[in-house]
């Protein structure tokens, strides 16, 4: 293609990393183009090569391990790989900018923000101090930071995560680049802040005609913002096309599986997620032929040969030998089978767990002098009430700092509540001592977020699972424990022989299964799941969610499911509670809450969360919630949400709204509803 | 900032008090006293009355509490008393030695910094190349070679090649700078080599760490010159751990250079300290210990202030 509009053209890129264990082929034969002013998304799971291929464009691969072994990167007709280091440095920041994933660590902590923004202006545009400062003020205004003059002299730690990402964008825009590469720009941010940042980037890219390459694993983000999409799997591009092509007519089984394994905000609680079984291949020793064949339900003998990326329709490419059959509807056309309204009736009236007026305040002391200090309180959880019936799943959603994790920890009695009741099977456990708690601890177990740090690296999987069995005397001896461990491992979809392994020998998804087996070892009735899938890749996430649902059905478990991902919560929960700054905003039946949110915060959250369907996304009005989440040290008076609420008035600043039952089973804490 | 400084200075009082109590009573718990050593040490035949009289003269026959109180009053009024051995004022005994020791320590620190920072940086930037290997061998040697042995080598080399020996008697800097420096540069070098090895290794590892940070990648993505990436973005962050090591080493040099002082025949604080201990000279030991404690505390304070100056997160009491 000789399109004069093409800004960047990556041709047959191969990147290798030399490690002590061998050569990792991180990117293999990737080709794509970016046109001026367009938004291209690169999606894929961790380790698929999406970030590496973009770092290669910037020529910022970690030296000396990573290097481009083959291919061309043509930018405005020049092959970037042929440039000298100095010529490349001149282009970085001037023609191509990059925005990174971690706003918390991507800015230099010891230099003022102003200098960090002005640096490329001095270097590339030879501006004077005054000119650069004026431009920096202009840039901060552009990215929506108020009081830019004063903030220029501040340091990164004085900015919130969202604000730091705005600063990163300002740095990226400084020299009016032609291309911005954004590597997971909003993954570390809350959903309302994510929406603000992405809206900002899209708006700026349109206004200034800057091409954007967004690297992400979030399909919703892709659907909302991308013009064109590259789907990558195991170092290769497997599908390429416009957003509509890829989302509505996926022509590669991996892309199809990916679309189906994501829980969606706009779908009611279904029976089961379709998942892609298995794990991505190890790039140290990738399989021959189609990389996806081992996990593909449509594989044939011919898949043992490398499938080329072929055009299945104008501008739409797929690297599947059977793309034609998929297009013709021959295979893969099956629609999702979903149980209509899969709501389970809890045993009416009976409550397994009831939380009433729960409060948890943390004391924070700040030293002000040798012998004096100021004590203040973080109101992590403030007056939260809900109950859970046996066999039910209650979802607890909210952004970071809303207190959802503290609620879970308090119910587990890892924290002692400041006030309130926690009634478990008729007994208030809020004030029990550790001896009285022992039998109850068995019945309420926990699954943690991070499968990497929550398993002791020095213990085998078998030891980790057997430990509580022996401590609580659930099994008689080590022999019995071994048998039980094998049973548990098989129950969570692992194999008995894995008991001998250490955590580092297992993948993230497998470790999370171990975490689940450990919780199940105690034969609990209730499990607090604290962000159990948020550290996992999309296809693995689906597997774990299905496992949790199957176990619930089989063992009659009750879940308190804590998460920030609204779609995941919707998928798994019977009822959903929404929290903000330590307070409960809304509590309702899941489908009712998503179909008809009543609280303005719930509405804003749902508006901010993108749905992986470009047609639906185009139809939605782009509304973003402004402002930042206030510090829980100094929560706003009255309704804690009034500072960001679109419908708040004077009365909201004065009165703390009580949760009222607006409809049967639908509680809302808002004066205006 | 001012409040912080006052706060830190006030906190020095309980720390020093703790040191004073510990050293005072530990000395009294250990058997043997100065009068015995002084009068009977050489096997002299002295009557009990003489000993008692000497004890009374030194005030050692009074109750411990009274002795301690007396010493405390002395400390507060900066009257450190007299050496129990020589009867000369402690301040006088220490002053001259401290001047010398402090000068060696400062010179060694300057030498160490001048060697360590370029060497450590170079080693980090050329990690796993021959430059790095050479630097690592040189610094490992610095850790392994005792300073006094290196000192002996230096003296031998000067004698062998230049047929010259550094002056033996101490000349203060303000009397004759040239004579002063030509005497003290050699012990400072001997000590500074080991010192620089410790610091260089710290500088190397912290720069290696910092160069992996996300903000270094950001700086490169902005098109910042590689030299500026190191000088502006990496060095300042990497200096923080190095400063801690420099501070600790500096404080150690005050009173820790016994053998090196012996080799170069310097009348430093270390030698005085050993002498005082072997003579059970209570007042002198106590004073030197208090001095060393003070040096440690002040050095730490300076290190913390440097930290605050380098790192805004500390300066503004970040989250």
Question: What low-confidence regions of chain B span 5 or more consecutive residues with pLDDT below 50?
Answer: none
CATH superfamily of the largest domain in chain B: MetI-like
| Secondary structure tally: strands of chain A | 24
Mean pLDDT of chain A: 87
Helix fraction of chain A by DSSP (H/I, runs of at least 4): 25-40%
Category from helices, strands and their pairing of chain A? alpha/beta
Number of domains of chain B: 2
Strand line-up of the largest beta sheet of chain A: 6-7-8-3-9-10-12-11
CATH fold title of the largest domain in chain B: MetI-like fold
Helix content range of chain B: over 70%
List the helices and strands and how they pair.
The complex is a heterodimer of chains A (673) and B (319).
Chain A: E1 6-19, E2 22-35, E3 39-43, H1 50-58, E4 66-75, E5 78-79, H2 85-91, E6 96-99, H3 113-125, H4 129-142, H5 148-151, H6 161-173, E7 179-183, H7 191-208, E8 211-216, H8 219-225, E9 228-233, E10 236-242, H9 243-248, H10 253-261, E11 310-313, E12 316-318, H11 323-327, E13 353-367, E14 373-388, E15 393-397, H12 404-411, E16 419-424, E17 427-428, H13 434-443, E18 444-447, H14 461-471, H15 478-491, H16 508-520, E19 526-530, H17 538-555, E20 558-563, H18 566-572, E21 575-580, E22 583-589, H19 590-595, H20 600-608, H21 614-619, H22 650-654, E23 660-663, E24 666-668
Parallel strand pairs in A: 3-8, 3-9, 6-7, 7-8, 15-20, 15-21, 18-19, 19-20
Antiparallel strand pairs in A: 1-2, 1-4, 4-5, 9-10, 10-12, 11-12, 13-14, 13-16, 16-17, 21-22, 22-24, 23-24
Helix pairs in contact in A: 3-4, 3-6, 4-6, 6-7, 14-15, 14-16, 15-16, 16-17
Chain B: H1 2-29, H2 34-40, H3 48-58, H4 64-76, H5 90-125, H6 130-144, H7 147-162, H8 177-211, H9 214-221, H10 226-253, H11 258-263, H12 269-278, H13 282-310, H14 312-315
């Amino acid at each position: 293609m000789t399109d004069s509009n093409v800004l960047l053209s990556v041709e047959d890129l191969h990147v290798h990393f030399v490690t002590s264990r061998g050569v990792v082929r991180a990117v293999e034969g990737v080709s794509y183009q970016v046109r001026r002013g367009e938004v291209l998304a690169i999606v894929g799971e961790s380790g698929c090569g999406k970030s590496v291929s973009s770092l290669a464009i910037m020529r910022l691969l970690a030296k000396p391990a990573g290097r481009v072994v083959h291919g061309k990167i043509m930018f405005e007709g020049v092959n970037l790989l042929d440039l000298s280091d100095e010529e490349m440095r001149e282009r970085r920041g001037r023609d191509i900018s990059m925005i990174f994933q971690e706003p918390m660590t991507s800015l230099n902590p010891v230099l003022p923000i102003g200098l960090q923004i002005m640096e490329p202006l001095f270097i590339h545009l030879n501006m004077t101090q005054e000119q650069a400062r004026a431009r920096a003020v202009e840039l901060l205004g552009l990215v929506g930071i108020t009081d830019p003059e004063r903030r220029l002299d501040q340091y990164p730690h004085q900015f919130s995560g969202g604000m730091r990402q705005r600063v990163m964008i300002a740095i990226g825009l400084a020299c009016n680049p032609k291309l911005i590469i954004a590597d997971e720009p909003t993954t570390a941010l809350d959903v309302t802040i994510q929406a603000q940042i992405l809206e900002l980037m899209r708006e700026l890219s349109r206004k200034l005609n800057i091409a954007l390459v967004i690297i992400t694993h979030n399909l919703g983000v892709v659907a909302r913002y991308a013009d064109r999409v590259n789907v990558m799997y195991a170092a290769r591009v497997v599908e390429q096309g416009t957003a509509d092509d890829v989302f509505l007519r996926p022509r590669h089984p991996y892309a199809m599986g990916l679309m189906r394994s994501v829980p969606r905000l706009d779908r009611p609680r279904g029976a089961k997620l379709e998942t892609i079984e298995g794990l991505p291949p190890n790039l140290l020793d990738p399989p021959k032929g189609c990389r996806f064949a081992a996990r593909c339900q449509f594989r044939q003998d011919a898949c043992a040969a490398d499938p080329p990326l072929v055009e299945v329709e104008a501008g739409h490419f797929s690297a599947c030998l059977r793309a034609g059959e998929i297009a013709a509807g021959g295979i893969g056309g099956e629609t999702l089978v979903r149980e209509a309204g899969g709501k389970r009736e809890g045993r009416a009236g009976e409550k397994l767990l009831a939380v009433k007026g729960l409060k948890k305040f943390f004391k924070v002391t700040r030293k002000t002098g040798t012998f004096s200090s100021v004590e203040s309180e973080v109101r992590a959880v403030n007056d939260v009430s809900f109950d859970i019936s046996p066999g039910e799943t209650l979802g607890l959603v909210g952004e970071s700092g809303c207190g959802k994790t503290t609620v879970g920890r308090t119910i587990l009695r890892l924290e002692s509540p400041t006030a309130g009741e926690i009634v478990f099977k008729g007994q208030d456990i809020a004030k029990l001592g550790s001896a009285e708690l022992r039998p109850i601890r068995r019945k309420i177990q926990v699954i943690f977020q991070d499968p990497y740090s929550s398993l002791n690296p020095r213990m085998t999987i078998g030891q980790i699972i057997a430990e509580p069995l022996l401590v609580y005397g659930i099994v008689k001896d080590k022999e019995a424990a071994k048998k039980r461990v094998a049973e548990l491992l098989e129950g969570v979809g692992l194999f008995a022989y894995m008991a001998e392994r250490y955590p580092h020998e297992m993948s993230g998804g497998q470790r999370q299964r171990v975490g689940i087996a450990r919780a199940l070892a105690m034969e609990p009735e209730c499990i607090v799941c604290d962000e159990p899938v948020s550290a996992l890749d999309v296809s693995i996430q689906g597997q774990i969610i299905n496992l949790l649902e199957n176990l619930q059905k089989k063992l009659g478990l009750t879940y308190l499911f804590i998460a920030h991902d609204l779609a995941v919560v919707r998928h798994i929960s019977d009822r959903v509670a929404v929290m903000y700054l330590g307070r409960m905003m809304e509590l309702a039946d899941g489908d009712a809450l998503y179909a008809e949110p009543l609280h303005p915060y719930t509405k804003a959250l749902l508006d901010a969360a993108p749905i992986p369907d470009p047609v639906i996304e185009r139809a939605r009005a782009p509304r973003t919630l402004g402002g930042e989440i206030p510090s829980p040290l100094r929560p706003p008076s009255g309704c804690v949400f009034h500072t960001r609420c679109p419908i708040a008035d004077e009365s909201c600043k004065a009165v703390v709204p009580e949760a009222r039952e607006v409809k049967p089973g639908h509680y809302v804490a808002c004066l205006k509803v | 900032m001012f409040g912080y400084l006052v706060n830190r200075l006030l906190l020095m009082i309980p720390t020093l008090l703790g040191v004073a109590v510990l050293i005072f009573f530990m000395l009294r718990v250990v058997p043997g006293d100065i009068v015995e050593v002084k009068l009977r040490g050489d096997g002299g035949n002295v009557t009990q009355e003489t000993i008692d009289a000497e004890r009374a003269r030194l005030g050692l026959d009074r109750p411990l509490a009274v002795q301690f109180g007396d010493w405390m009053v002395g400390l507060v009024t900066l009257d450190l008393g007299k050496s129990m051995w020589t009867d000369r004022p402690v301040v006088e005994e220490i002053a001259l030695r401290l001047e010398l020791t402090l000068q060696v320590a400062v010179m060694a620190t300057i030498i160490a910094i001048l060697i360590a920072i370029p060497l450590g940086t170079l080693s980090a930037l050329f990690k796993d190349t021959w430059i790095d290997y050479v630097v690592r061998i040189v610094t490992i040697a610095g850790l392994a070679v005792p300073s006094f042995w290196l000192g002996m080598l230096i003296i031998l080399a000067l004698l062998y090649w230049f047929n010259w020996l550094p002056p033996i008697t101490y000349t203060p800097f303000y009397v004759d700078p040239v004579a002063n420096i030509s005497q003290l540069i050699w012990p400072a070098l001997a000590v500074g080599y080991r010192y620089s090895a410790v610091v260089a290794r710290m500088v190397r590892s912290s720069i290696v760490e910092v160069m992996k940070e996300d903000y270094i990648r950001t700086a490169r993505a902005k098109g910042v010159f590689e030299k500026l990436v190191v000088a502006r973005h990496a060095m300042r962050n990497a200096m923080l751990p190095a400063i801690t090591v420099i501070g600790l080493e500096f404080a150690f040099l005050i009173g820790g250079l016994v053998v090196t002082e012996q080799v170069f025949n310097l009348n430093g604080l270390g030698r005085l300290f050993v002498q005082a201990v072997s003579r059970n000279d209570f007042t002198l030991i106590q004073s030197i210990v208090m001095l060393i404690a003070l040096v440690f505390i002040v050095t730490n304070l300076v290190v913390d202030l440097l930290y605050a100056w380098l790192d805004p997160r500390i300066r503004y009491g970040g989250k």
